[in-house]
Amino acid sequence: MKRDGFLICLSAEALSLAEEVEAIRNALAAIERPDDELALFATLKGPLFAISDAQLLAYRSRFSSLHPYKQVPEDLPESLVEVVDALAVLRELHGWRNRRPVADTIGRLLATTRAHAGFANWATGGQALANVTRLMDMARRAEQGGLISFRAFVDWLDDQAENGEAGDAPLIEEGAEGVRIMTVHKAKGLEFPVVVLADMTAKRGTRAFKVD
């Protein structure tokens, strides 16, 4: 896929639209476009910052905007300090977004919000962390392939979400023992010692069989 003068040559599978991926995608959009209130609201309310609706409503009612660069007084109620601190994080990342590698910006976002610890406690924690790792790897590979701006990567992620291309990052490393369920399309060109073809359209039989 070509965008803004660079070619992204990544995996044929895009990351799934899992909650952790959506949270990071929203945050990157908010970092790139601080006047995008929808992205800002989704980021602040999402799992990275987990700010309540009541806090966000109170802040916006008082200052009419969630813009990270809006000047606010220092003597704020404790409930609004959390919003100010979160906006400060996004403001700092916005200011340096084109002076750092994209993966570094993502890493700083995750470190500041302690996202890895939060994702690890989810029921799907292993998969969530694998998806986050893969997203950062995709950012590194995109830059190696000629990525010219932070915005280009954000726009590419948006395209992936709109096109609905999905596929979780694999949890089983190459060479490890395990069962991998794949479509025929994704398995094309790969080799496995044992292959079982499942036909979802076949009629259900009554015979049972055993595999030794």
Look at the structure and give the mean pLDDT.
81
**Element-level helix/strand string:** EEHHHHHHHHH
Q: What is the overall shape?
A: globular
- Read across the widest sheet, the strand sequence of neighbours is 1-2
Helical content band: 40-55%
What would you note in describing this structure?
- Residues 1-14 and 166-176 have low confidence and may be disordered.
- It is built from 9 helices and 2 strands, in the order E-E-H-H-H-H-H-H-H-H-H.
- Strand 1 (2-3) and strand 2 (6-7) form a beta hairpin.
- With 212 residues, it is mostly helical.
- It is globular, with a radius of gyration of 21 Å.
- The termini are far apart.
- Helix 1 packs across helix 7 (125-144).
- It is 51% helix and 2% strand.
- Strands 1-2 form a two-stranded antiparallel ribbon.
Write the layout of secondary structure elements.
Blueprint: E1 2-3, E2 6-7, H1 19-32, H2 37-45, H3 53-63, H4 78-96, H5 102-113, H6 115-120, H7 125-144, H8 150-163, H9 184-187
Spell out the key features of this protein.
mainly alpha; two-stranded antiparallel sheet; 9 helices
Short description:
The protein is an all-alpha fold. It is 51% helix and 2% strand.
